[in-house]
Write a structure and sequence with these properties.
Length: 131
């Protein structure tokens, strides 16, 4: 029984750190996508966030089930886990899905404002060429 508890605590520590990385990434990406788009620098910033999410999507799809399974096994074998950790695991997939939905909304918004920024860029280039 003691070896099971030690093994469980080792797994908990490992997946708690992985879960923290996931939660931190989701929080950071959500903040980056929430930035208002007023100029081309904002577009560049948001596009970089969308790229990071796209690059991380496969890793998340592979990582989230492992974390969830680990915590299910810890619960099954009565390894003590803080309530906050269990709640974070429960909300982690929802947060990821919410981030993907936000990324989709931001991407659609970029498609809508693209002609406006394109016209502004063309006008700025024309002004630059005349000067």
């Amino acid at each position: 029984k003691a070896w099971l508890m030690q093994y469980g605590q080792g797994a908990r520590l490992k997946y708690r750190s992985v879960m923290s990385e996931v939660v931190d990434f989701v929080d950071d990406a959500s903040k980056r996508l929430a930035r208002a788009i007023k100029d081309l620098d904002d577009v560049r910033f948001v596009m970089a966030a969308l790229k990071d999410i796209r690059e991380r999507e496969v890793v998340m799809d592979l990582t989230l089930p492992d974390i969830e399974e680990c915590y299910v096994l810890l619960s099954k074998f009565s390894v003590p886990v803080a309530v906050e950790e269990t709640e974070r695991v429960d909300s982690m997939r929802y947060s990821w899905a919410r981030l993907l939905a936000l990324a989709h909304e931001v991407q659609n918004h970029l498609i809508q404002v693209q002609p406006i920024f394109h016209r502004n860029l063309e006008q700025s280039v024309e002004v630059f060429q005349t000067e």
